[in-house]
Structures are given as C-alpha cells and as structure tokens.
Design a protein that fits this description.
Blueprint lengths: L1 H10 L25 H5 L21 E11 L5 H14 L4 H5 L11 E8 L9 H5 L6 E9 L2 E4 L13 E12 L1
Parallel strand pairs: 2-3
Antiparallel strand pairs: 1-5, 2-5, 4-5
Amino acid sequence: MTECYSLLNLRFPSFRIITDFGANSFPKSISFLHRSTKFQRCGISRAMEVVEGSRGSSPGMKLLFVEMGVGYDQHGQDITVAAMRACRDAISSNSIPAFRRGSIPGVSFDQMKLQIKLGVPHSLQNSLDIEKVKSVFPYGKILNVEVVDGGLVCSSGVLVEEMGDKNDDCYIVNAAVYVGY
C-alpha cells in the first residue's frame, strides 16, 4: 500500500498522504486517467469515476459526475431566485448523452438520479422554497436537496425600488448537482 501512497503523491503532490481509503472524507476508491499497471495494482482504475461512499453520494446512487454553479439575486432579495439560478448555472453547460444513447450498459435515461447541495446563508435558509428549486431540473429523480451554510449576502451597491428592492442586498447561492444512476 505504501507504493500506492507514493503514486498518489507523485500524481498529486499537494495531497496529504491518505491513510484510510474508507474514510467519510474521501472516496472508498479513487480513479485517475493513468495507464500505469502500478496504478491498476493499487486498485486505482483508469476510468474517471467516484463510487459509493464518497461525500455527496448516497448508498442508492452510483455517482458519475458533479456539476457546480453559482446564482445571484441582485434585486428583490429572493433567496429562491438565487438558488434556482445556481442550479441552472450548474446544469446549463452540460450534455448527458450517455443516458439517452445507452452508453452505460443496463442504464437508461429514466434511471438518472440527482442530489442537490445548496450553500445558502444561514439567516435565509428558512425562506428557501425547495419545490421551486426542484422545478429547475427537467429530468432525473431528485433523491434529496441538502441545504448547508454557505453562499453570501453582500451589497449590490444600489437600491432600485422599481425592481422590488427592499435594500441593496445581493444574495448569492452555490450549488453542487450530483448526477448518477
């Protein structure tokens, strides 16, 4: 196993040495794009995947990738609008043809699963409308939406009453969308 740690440190020198591959803070299995048989002997495959047990994935989902986005509401002070924009940002520059074309053996489009994690300022979490946020996703079964402390409230620099502003606050939300099957 020492050889595996050395290989990881060669590939990712800034990573600390990992002593427990089953820890909650790290996937049970790691995969890199590398052809070395040494990597394969260490159980590190060439395919890019994160398997069950990694942070953000649930036992009922095999994680394929994570999409990330940020959303703002500069006028109107609506945290739900900012969260919806963050989710749209996360999914807007991706295409997932594997589900439609049958690229994953035995997996069809209707088996897509999603998990949403939102970083929202703590003081605004109770005013977030989760159902509206879910409406952003055109397909996929949403397993859960997790809201954690995050995001930001800052000044937009201007109060525009005609746009519904109550003050000059700008709300910012971060989103991570976990996609799997």
